[in-house]
Amino acid sequence: MRNQITLALDNLEAVLSAADMGLCDLTRLNVYTTDIDEAIANFDVLAARFGPVGASPQ
After folding, report:
1. Which of the ends of the chain has fewer CB neighbours closer than 10 A, N or C?
2. What is the pLDDT of residue 34?
3. All structural domains of the chain with their residue ranges
């Protein structure tokens, strides 16, 4: 799960960068998972990426 979240964020940042944007430009982020407990256990990855840029998508 941790690697999947990291890869998804890498891909998201690449797409945003190609459009001259970054994570701070997001207003909403949907997370779909089949294992909510495992996803929540790894949400620190999201915090580590969004926190430094001051982003807090809903």
Report:
1. C
2. 94
3. 2-49
Compute the half-sphere exposure of residue 42: CA atoms within 13 Å on the CB side of its CA: 15
Residue-wise DSSP of 26-58:
-S------S-HHHHHHTTHHHHHHHGGGT----
Q: Is 20 helix (H, G, I), strand (E, B) or coil?
A: coil
Average pLDDT on 14-37 reads 95
What is the distance between the alpha carbons of residues 33 and 22, in angstroms, rounded to a whole number?
24
Spatial separation of the C-alpha atoms in residues 38 and 2, rounded to whole Å: 9
Handedness of CA 34, 36, 40, 43 (dihedral sign): positive
Q: Record the pTM.
A: 0.85
